[in-house]
Write a structure and sequence with these properties.
Blueprint (H helix, E strand, L loop, with lengths): L2 H8 L2 H9 L5 H18 L4 E6 L5 H8 L3 E8 L2 H10 L6 E6 L18 E5 L8 H11 L5 E7 L5 H16 L5 H17 L7 H10 L3 E9 L2 E7 L4
Parallel strand pairs: 1-2, 1-4, 2-3, 4-5
Antiparallel strand pairs: 5-7, 6-7
Helix pairs in contact: 6-9, 7-8
Length: 241
C-alpha cells in the first residue's frame, strides 16, 4: 500500500471502524469471491500449513480462514495499524497460532522478515490493487514462499480496454442507483466513483496485466480462477525445487 494514500487513509481510526462495519460495494458478489479464494487455498495446501495474509484490513477474510481450521499458523499483516488493531480485538482461534505484524507490502525486501518461517501459502483480498508496482510485489511473494507454495488472491480489477471499463462502470452505477437511473445520474455516479477510487489510492489493472506480472515473477500454473466484472480471483504456484 502507498504510505501517502492508502495506508494513511485506512490508518485513521474512524475510517477503520467504518470500513469494518461495511460489507463491501456488493456484499453478495464479494462473498462469492472470498468463498472461491478460500476454497482454492484449502484445495491447494495440506492441512496444518502456514499462511501469510497480506492486507488483512479489519480481519473479514481472516475470520473465514481461521474458521476453516485448515492452517496451524496464520500471519495476519496490514500496513495500517488502526485496521490491524481492530483485527486483533475481534479475531481468536483455538487451533491456529495467530501472528500480527505491521507490513507495507509495497516496500522492498519485506519478504526477508519471514525468512525464519515456513510460508506455504500467501493470500490477500481487496488489497493488492493499492500497489503501484505489482511485479515488485509479486517478486516478494515469490521469495517468501517455500518451493511448491501457492499464491491465491482476490482483487478489484480494471478492464483491458476503455470499452470494458465502461461496461464495468455502468454495472457499478446501475447496481447502486437501480434500473430506473437516468443516463445523467449514471454519468454523475461514475465520475464520483472514479474520484473515490483515486482518493483511496487504488491502482486497478486488467486480468491480463495481473497474469503477465505473475509470469514475469516466475510463478507457474498462473490463471484467473473466477471473475465477475470488477472482482477477480487469481492462482499461482512457486515451482518445486
Amino acid at each position: 500500500m502507498s504510505k501517502n494514500i492508502s495506508i494513511n487513509s485506512y490508518n485513521e481510526l474512524e475510517k477503520a471502524k467504518n470500513y469494518d462495519l461495511k460489507r463491501g460495494f456488493d456484499p453478495k458478489r464479494k462473498e462469492e469471491m472470498l468463498h472461491v479464494t478460500l476454497s482454492a487455498i484449502i484445495e491447494l495446501t495440506t492441512k496444518g500449513s502456514t499462511l501469510l495474509e497480506l492486507g488483512s484490513g479489519s480481519g473479514l477474510f481472516t475470520k473465514s480462514i481461521i474458521e476453516s481450521d485448515h492452517f496451524s499458523e496464520i500471519h495476519v499483516t496490514d500496513g495500517a495499524r488502526a485496521m490491524l488493531e481492530i483485527a486483533k480485538r475481534k479475531l481468536s482461534s483455538p487451533s491456529s497460532t495467530l501472528n500480527y505484524s505491521i507490513l507495507d507490502f509495497t516496500q522492498n525486501s519485506w519478504s526477508k522478515s519471514f525468512d525464519d518461517h515456513h510460508i506455504q501459502a500467501v493470500t490477500s483480498s481487496m488489497a493488492i490493487h493499492h500497489a503501484e508496482n505489482k511485479t515488485a510485489l509479486f517478486n516478494e511473494v515469490f521469495q517468501v514462499l517455500k518451493p511448491g507454495g501457492i499464491f491465491v488472491f482476490a482483487d478489484h480489477i480494471a478492464g483491458s480496454s476503455s470499452l470494458i471499463n465502461q461496461i464495468i462502470a455502468n454495472k457499478r452505477a446501475k447496481l447502486k442507483l437501480g434500473s430506473k437511473a437516468t443516463a445523467q445520474q449514471i454519468e454523475n455516479f461514475i465520475v464520483k466513483d472514479n474520484k473515490k477510487q483515486e482518493a483511496e489510492g487504488n491502482k486497478c489493472e486488467s486480468v491480463m496485466s495481473y497474469l503477465n506480472y505473475l509470469q514475469l515473477s516466475d510463478f507457474t500454473d498462473v490463471d484467473c480462477l473466477w471473475r465477475d466484472y470488477w472482482l477477480a480471483v487469481f492462482v499461482a504456484k512457486k515451482p518445486e525445487e
